From TrEMBL:
Domain (Peptidase C1A papain C-terminal): residue spans on this chain: 27-238
Annotated GO MF terms: cysteine-type peptidase activity
InterPro entries from the UniProt entry: Papain-like_cys_pep_sf (IPR038765), Pept_asp_AS (IPR025661), Peptidase_C1A (IPR013128), Peptidase_C1A_C (IPR000668)
Designated name of the protein: Peptidase C1A papain C-terminal domain-containing protein
Matches recorded under PANTHER family: CYSTEINE PROTEASE FAMILY C1-RELATED
GO biological process: proteolysis
Organism: Paenibacillus ferrarius
Length: 247
């Protein structure tokens, strides 16, 4: 299957809420994967990576921080439609920005898959009024932008997964990455950029003395390390377009 990398990188806005860094102490590696989390699904041929990353974050929060029964899937297709509605591209598989996905989650919410299942060919279909009503039950209060590796580590240490945009190079599609999940830092002299992809940072770890971000992908649990991959921390500041948390 040919994958699409249609995340729209987002530039900082002076009006953005900025994540507050406060810890000067050493932050230890953390892995949030053992926490209650929905199964990793496959986005297929659509450029819906933002919807998958953001809905996974929302489900993590509902399963681990609330008292409600959150054993369902939020509709990635609903969120992807509403993102494109904001951006004026509902008739196209155009991708979206993380900011617009979070804006949808704050202002509209996201319904469950029982109201709007993930059928790729239905991406142009308008969700029902019932889906819109259900979406109101799954909203966020606000969201903040992160800029540094320290802020990423701090957010993760607070059990706050981070939605991030990553520039993808040819080596990402290699057999080695698909089988081990370990992503190399790209060699720009030998490979070119394929576009940008939204993923969910779930922790960080040390591999062979180097720091790596534990990322949840949306290509099924058969890809990488059971659906996850490990991104060099050195991507931040160079090949990471934007990072966000919900509040």
């Amino acid at each position: 299957m040919e994958r699409q990398y249609l995340l729209k990188p987002d530039r900082p806005d002076p009006k953005d809420y900025k994540y507050a860094s406060y810890s000067s102490q050493e932050i230890k590696p953390i892995d949030l994967r053992p926490y209650d989390f929905p199964e990793i699904l496959d986005q297929g041929y659509l450029g819906s990576c933002t919807a998958f990353a953001i809905s996974a974050l929302k489900q993590f929060k509902e399963r681990n921080e609330s008292q409600i029964n959150a054993y369902f899937y939020l509709s990635q297709l609903y969120l992807y439609y509403k993102e494109r509605e904001i951006e004026g591209t509902i008739d196209f598989d155009s991708g979206a920005s993380i900011r617009d996905g979070l804006k949808v989650l704050q202002q509209v919410g996201c319904c469950t898959t029982s109201y709007f299942p993930y059928v790729e060919s239905n991406y142009k279909n308008k969700p029902s009024i019932e889906a819109d009503e259900n979406a109101k039950e799954h909203k966020i209060n606000s969201y903040s932008r992160l800029f540094t590796a320290l802020q990423l580590k701090q957010a993760l240490s607070e059990k706050n997964p981070v939605v991030m945009g990553v520039e993808i190079f040819q080596s990402f599609e290699s057999f080695e990455v698909a089988s081990t999940g370990v992503v190399p830092f790209p060699d720009r002299n030998k490979e070119y950029s394929l576009g940008y992809h939204a993923v969910l940072a779930m922790g960080w770890k040390i591999i062979n003395g180097e720091e790596y971000i534990i990322c949840r992908n949306s290509w099924s649990k058969q890809w990488g390390d059971k659906g996850y991959f490990y991104l060099p921390m050195s991507y931040i500041g160079r090949l990471v377009s934007d990072m966000w948390v919900t509040n």
